[in-house]
Amino acid sequence: MGTERTGRADGMRVLRREEWDRWYDTLLRAFGGVAEPAEERALYRSLTECDRSLGVWEGDECVGTAGAFGFRMTVPGGAEVPTAGVTMVGVAATHRRRGVLTSMMRRQLDDVRGWGEPLAALTASEPAIYGRFGYGAATWQLGAEIDTSRVRLSVPPGTDDVRLRYAAPADVLDACESVYARLVPGRPGMLARRPGWERLGLLDPEEGRDGASALQCVVASRGGHGGGRAGEVTGYARFRVKPGWGEGGAEGTVVLQDLEGLDPASRAALWRFLFDIDLTNRLTVRNRPADEAWQYQVSDIRRCRTRLRDMLYIRLVDVEAALRARTYRTPVDVVLEVEDAFCPWNAGRWRLSGDEKGASCVRTPEEPDLALSVRELGAAYLGGVPLTALGAAGRVRELRPGALAEASLAFSSEVAPWLPHGF
Question: CA-to-CA distance for 328 and 317, rounded, in angstroms?
Answer without folding.
Answer: 20
